[in-house]
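Lecture 7 notes: from sequence to structure.
We start with the chain below.
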Amino acid sequence: MGTSTGGPYLNTAAVTSPVGIARLLQMTFGCATFSLVAHQGGFSAAYGTFCMFVWTFCFAVTVFIIACEFTRLHSCLSLSWGNFTAAFAMLATLMSVTAAVIYPLYFVQAGCYPIGCQVRDFRIAASVFAGLLFLAYAAEVFLTRAKPGQVTSYMATVSGLLKIVQAFVACIIFGALVNDSQYGKYVATQWCVAVYSFCFVVTVVVVAFSVTGKTALLWFPFERSVVIYTFGAVLLYASAAVIWPVFCFDSKYGSPRRPGLCAKGKCPWDSQLVIAIFTYVNLLLYVLDLAYSQRIRFVSHI
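Predicted structure tokens for the same chain:
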């Protein structure tokens, strides 16, 4: 038995497996994106700040994940590592695709700037790498998702991944709510806000318990409770999907059409429309979540 050279302590699969390669690409593309923007591309306002936050945040967490898996230090953390990495990959996919759309939309133009074409070229290059970054995170989600018959982490299942998407869509709804949506005019629209808030909080709690691996400490069956909650969320979102459009777009309470004098970017009607659209999106996500949860509960016992 010779002395170890460190091989047993290092997990080379963390950087040589398909998932490991995807993470190395994420780190490379993320670093390239925010470096190009910080060097010459530039950013401004809340949209640019959001994009820079996405790229730096995802880069930092990806480096942390690679380092922990390569050195096997993740075994020392009080986390359900499989749930954590699956949840982050889904979240990073959603955040990176949002940034990949926002940055070129607001910061890239066809012509050159008065000071030359260099800034435009840097922004185009940053946009390309931002798109590649999204594809790298999407590849990890595809590679780590639960396969039929496979025993895996809850957050890697369709139901777990949908929880991340549901919370992300709720954040979009909250963003539109605070953008002068006038939700306080009626008790009915305040009910809708309560629905969005309640479902968001419970969904985040479900994700938090899964990621921290504390579900076994609960005095009630976690998975069955999640299915019951999902059914309740479907009913709550169905009520919001009826109430919100009525009190925002019916001529008796709101406006069926966008007011002509409404300023672009500061129009309550626009925010109300965004909220209505994403209310239906989240309703569909919760319905799919419920359908999948029921299928895996009953089919697996046949």
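Points to note: The two ends are 49 Å apart (CA to CA). DSSP finds nine helices and no strands in the chain.
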